[in-house]
TrEMBL record:
Its cofactor is Zn(2+). This is Delta-aminolevulinic acid dehydratase. GO terms for biological process: protoporphyrinogen IX biosynthetic process. 5-aminolevulinate 2 binds at S271, Y310.
Length: 322
């Protein structure tokens, strides 16, 4: 006698009762791109439905996020001024710092994460201090730590170093603790791959490197065991949450991380993943809602606790309506 597994697929009621993986609006973090200036809400061409926002328009965006039920945001700042050391990244009146204060004023309960990196702020577009045409790891740590401290002082709940310098988590944890910010947590971009899926983001954040590429500090897409070493090191240095980026092409890395570590896992469903779905939907060859829900479910099923996605607001609304 064969087993009749279809009995538990008979209709929506039973399928929903036995469903192993369920998306909730609490799963999502929404990326924000904040620019200098006033009265700016400008759609990002490479990320349809996402916008560059000026700080004075954030009330409109934050209210939309709250209504959707999304609990967290991650902030990326695009400054007007750039220099060799990315000084705008740790300026108390920098774009991220102003955005954090304004979001916390509008909605104090939103969990505010800040991207801690230098590529948006440096004239050369690299994620650290360049010496002799190479990003100097140890010199960069000093600046990354300063940026994280500045974000904490502005009211960030969590800082997220994305530079992939060795030792950055420990440097950040030390400077935060020394300055009385022991409760500010760290979400480390622990396995951030040198991926071709970042193209739309680099347009949105204006952060393409002026020379070379980022392969000397971001991870080789061919490697998985190396990711486990990076994640272990970040946990040992004090990371509260570890992140895998991108998400869909690296579901195996998410699963390996879930099997090996107990820390919460974030997965960043990046701009290229989003843009491909939007492009296919615009051509009418896929059902956008169905594809998005299936894709994000696969990320959670692989082991992610938190999903950073440009679909966050839409998905949270779909979940509530369904």
């Amino acid at each position: 006698m064969f087993k009749r597994y279809r009995r538990l697929r008979k209709n929506y009621a039973i399928r929903s009762m036995v469903r192993e993986t369920v998306l909730n609006e609490e799963d999502f973090v929404y990326p924000l791109f904040i620019v200098e200036g006033n009265n700016i809400k400008k759609e990002i061409k490479s990320l349809p439905g996402n916008f560059h926002w000026s700080v004075d328009r954030l009330d409109e965006l934050v209210e939309d996020i709250v209504r959707a039920g999304v609990k967290g945001v991650i902030i990326f700042g695009i400054p007007n001024y750039k220099d060799d050391v990315g000084s705008g990244a740790y300026d108390d009146e920098g774009i991220v710092q102003k955005a954090v204060r304004e979001i916390k004023r509008i909605a104090p309960d939103i969990w505010v994460i800040t991207d801690v990196c230098m590529c948006e702020y440096t004239s050369h577009g690299h994620c650290g201090i360049v010496i002799d045409n190479s990003v100097d790891n140890d010199e960069t740590l000093k600046y990354i730590a300063k940026i994280a401290l500045s974000h904490a002082q502005s009211g960030a709940d969590m800082v997220a170093p994305s530079d992939m310098m060795d030792g950055r988590v420990g440097a950040i944890r030390s400077i935060l603790d020394e300055n009385g910010y022991k409760d500010v947590s760290i979400m480390a971009y622990s396995a951030k791959y040198a991926s071709a899926f970042y193209g739309p983001f680099r347009e949105a954040a204006d952060c393409c490197p002026e020379f070379g590429d980022r392969k000397s500090y971001q991870m080789d897409p061919a490697n998985s065991r190396e990711a486990m070493l990076e994640i272990q090191e970040d946990i040992d240095e004090g990371a509260d949450i570890v992140m895998i980026k991108p998400a869909l092409p690296y579901l195996d890395i998410i699963k390996m991380t879930r099997d090996k570590f107990d820390n919460p896992i974030a997965a960043y469903s990046v701009s290229g993943e989003f843009a491909m779905i939007k492009a296919a939907a615009a051509l009418g060859v896929i059902d956008e809602k169905a594809i998005v829900l299936e894709s994000l479910t696969s990320i959670k099923r692989a082991g992610a606790d938190i999903i950073i996605t440009y679909h966050a607001i839409d998905v949270a609304r779909w979940i509530r309506r369904d």
